[in-house]
Structures are given as structure tokens and as C-alpha cells.
Amino acid sequence: MDRLRSLSKSMKIEGNPFGSSHQRNQIFLKFVAFFLLVGLTYRLIITDSTDSPIPQVRTSPDPPGLTASVAQAPAPVVSPVNITTAASQNASTKCDIFTGNWVPDPSGPLYTNTSCRHIQEHQNCLKNGRPDSNYLLWRWKPRDCDLPRFDPQHFLDTMRNKWWAFIGDSISRNHVQSLLCILSQVEEVEEIYHDKEYRSKIWRFPSHNFTLSVVWSPFLLKADVFENSEGVSFSDIQLHLDTLDPKWTDQYVNFDYVVISGGKWFLKTSIFHENHTVTGCHYCQGKNNLTELGYGYSYRKALRLVLDFVADPNRKAQVLLRTTTPDHFENGEWNSGGFCNRTMPFKESEGEMKSEDEFMRDIELEEFRKTQEEGSNIALLDTTSMSLLRPDGHPGPYRYPNPFSGMKIKDPVRVQNDCLHWCLPGPIDSWNDLMVEVMLNREIEKEN
């Protein structure tokens, strides 16, 4: 206040209260300085005595299923339902996570072929003698965003008291084994069921009461299959196009999350049954004067029946339809000397999809779009394009131990190659990154 009194005293003018023109200008300037000083003093006093003018951001309440240990953590909390970080929201909502390239990843996979006991022998490429390991050092990078890496601990926390099922053929089994290998680095799993052929299995993670299963149903439909242990047919498959396979529909009520896929089995010779009548076939070569309807006919019928079943609003499961998996046989097929000996991924502009794979994926996309109504519980897991770019990720001749033992010159034509399934660890591990991104982030977006 003394400063204010002094300033006021210095501004007094004797005689004419407004003085001369020069004096009036001085008085005016002093008044301006006086009010600026008062304003600045007020601003400093208010700023020191109040909160920051930046508004506080209100955080949303914890989503259902958030465990106490996570909720009480002092660090910023990432909701287990939304497995990943803010980058995942960017990935799932602002770019096509299914379009991109494989980029070098020197950190390698989340497990090794020795740290996971769930790898089948014919997928353990390193154990079987594959000499190169560069195929392990890549990760999937969408074109316009980052895809967060799968976090097994968060996944298990989220899946407490849940049941996740994979329904399909041996590629589905390949996928679930990849997921098992990743999760078992956090908690070891117990196998609680297997069928006679060890094709359908159920596992449980005891401390999370999380159940994981694979249901062998290569057609997704009721089918009578006549094959030996080597996969060679001795009679035509009888395929019932109007009846779903009860092996998975009978237990569907138990499932919370489901990944469904069809594929290569529809290329096999099949006789079609509808309404208890033989209506046609695929690749039956004129047997019994049957009408050749083709695999596209049976695959479309199967997908329509499956999608109508799982879309029923009375069924709780959240569903992913995984698209077809391209193979990489070159110079022949699996039974005619075909092989895959590449050691590097293709670039996005490289690689050409086979006509049957492209046809099947088109059917998948068409039938999927028919289910897309508001509130749909079905999403797409489009792994086709990313898989097409990995000709280096298959067992090839290393489906069996030391396949070239005793040969003076390696001859891939003389050794049966597997250019359809995937080495573990391998490119299929990245399917889990996409699976979590699509399934769980979509769920949290619906809740918000």
C-alpha cells in the first residue's frame, strides 16, 4: 500500500488540476502504469492462492472385472479389459490393423521352442533341425499405426472365470498352441480333457479359473469323414450342409469368447446332403451322376449357418470369424513335391494369393458383412493378408527331425513339406496381438 500511496502522491499537480498539455500526458501515462501495476499485483495474488486454471480430466470408473491388485496400484492404471495402452485404441479405431508389413524385431518371440511344452513335434522347427532362425525376428506393423504387443498377464487377469474356445481345423489348433505357449510363461496350464484322437482339448489356468479349449470341427458342419492317420481319404466325405456339428454347438453355452474358422477342408472331395437328400458334390468327378456344385457352394452354406447360429441375441459369446489361411507351396502341392524354402518375409507389394484362397476369403467377407448390424457380437479377424507375407514361417521339410539326414544333396522334392501350418514360435504368434485388439478393445468401446 505504501507503494500505491507514493505513486498517488507523485501524481498531484498544483494549480490547474489538469495542468499543461505536457503535464496531462504525464498524468495519463502514470494512470496507465498505476492500473497495470494494480492488475499485475492482483493476478499474482490470485494465482498463488488458487488451483491451476487447467481443468482436471475426469477418469471413467474402473470397468467390471478390474482386480483389486491392479486398481490399487500407484502407477496409472490400464484397464485389464482393454488389454493394451492408449496406442491400442489408436490401432483399433483409426487404422486398418490388417494391412501393413512385417518389420524387424530383434527382441524375438515371447517364448522359445524349449520354454513351451505345448508345441507339437511337427511344429517345433528348430528342434527338428531348421538351420535358420531369422523368421523369429519379425513383428506385424500396421501401415498407419502401432499394434501393441500381447500382454499375457493382463490377458489372464481379464479372463478370470472366463472360457475361450477355438473352433475349426488344425490351423485353429496351431493358433491355440501359440496362445498357450505365450500364456504359460506367466502361469502353467493344466490339461483337463482330450478326445480319443487328441484333436479336441480343454485346458485350465487354475489361479485365474480361465478355461481354454480347441474343438476339432474342420467343416463346422456335421460331416462323416473317412481318412487314415496320414490324412488320406478312403471314401468320400458326406457333408450335411443344413446341420451344424454338435461337437461344438452342444457346449457353446459355456463359451464367453469364440474364434471360428473354416478353410482348406472344403477343398476335399465331398458329397452334399440337404434335407436328408443328396443335392450335389464337390470334385466328385461325375460319380453317380451327381451335380458338381463346388466348394464355394458348401463353404458359403456352412458360414451362413454358423453366423446365424452365433448371432442369436440369446447367446452370450463374443465371436471372431478368422479368415482363411493361405499356404505357400511352390512347384507343387503337399502330395506332389511342393516345397517352401524361403527365409525372408514378402513385402506388402509381393506375394500372390492362390485363386482358391482368394475365393474363400471373398465368401467370408461377403457372409460376414451380412451379419453387421448395430450391437452385433461378431467381429472379423482378417489374418489372410498378413499371413500371405510370411512364406518363411512354415515347417517346410522340418516337420520331421533331420529330414535330409543321409542325403548328399538336400532335395526338398523327395521330402514331404508342410507349407500350411506354422512353426512355433513363429508368425502365428502375431495373430494373438490382432485377436486381443479386435475382440477385447471392441468390447470396451461398446461398454463406453
From TrEMBL:
Pfam families the record matches: PC-Esterase (PF13839), PMR5N (PF14416)
Family: Belongs to the PC-esterase family. TBL subfamily.
Topology in membrane: Single-pass membrane protein
The keyword Cytoplasm is assigned to this record: no
Keyword terms, alphabetized: Membrane, Signal-anchor, Transmembrane, Transmembrane helix
Entries under InterPro entries matching the protein: TBL, TBL_C, TBL_N
Protein name: Trichome birefringence-like N-terminal domain-containing protein
Gene responsible for this protein: A10p000550.1_BraROA
Organism of origin: Brassica rapa subsp. trilocularis
Annotated ranges, domain Trichome birefringence-like C-terminal: 147-437
Subcellular location: Membrane
Transmembrane segments: 27-46
Annotated ranges, domain Trichome birefringence-like N-terminal: 94-146
